[in-house]
Design brief:
A hairpin with a 4-residue loop joins strand 6 and strand 7. The chain is α+β, with helices and mostly antiparallel strands. The protein has one domain. Strands 1, 2, 3, 4, 5, 6 and 7 form a seven-stranded antiparallel β-sheet that branches. It is globular and about 35 Å long.
Length: about 120
């Protein structure tokens, strides 16, 4: 349990590190995490606890959304604007108001994989 929480703290710290270094102010994180199996194409997860799913909201999600490269596109599954880089995807739900980011960490491979949410 301790190693999973430590890994989550490291990942979240890396996500906001650029902002924290520039601003030198701590950034409050809001979001959720879940331990579950691999996410299947039908949206279900397999049994087990092989993945740590992380969802960010509020300022952390907005900062990550703005930091991702490329132009946003409309997600055909949700209708929201989405930016994705690799397996990290962020939504702009309401222009300049609400943001949501999601990704997972495959604990067996130590790799970042897609999280919960639309079609990215």
């Amino acid at each position: 349990m301790f190693s999973i929480l430590r890994m989550m703290l490291v990942v979240v710290t890396l996500l906001v590190l650029g902002t924290s270094i520039r601003a030198m102010d701590p950034v409050q994180l809001r979001g959720e995490y879940q331990l579950a199996g691999r996410l299947e194409h039908n949206g279900e997860t397999t049994p087990g606890k092989s993945h740590l799913y992380i969802s960010l909201t509020d300022d952390a999600a907005k900062t990550l959304y703005e930091s991702l490269g490329g132009d946003p596109a409309e997600d055909p599954c949700t209708g929201y604007r989405v930016k994705a880089q690799g397996n990290v995807g962020c939504y702009e739900i309401a222009p300049n108001e609400r943001y949501f980011c999601s990704f997972s960490i495959n604990l067996e491979r130590g790799a970042v994989e897609a999280g919960l949410g639309g079609c990215f």
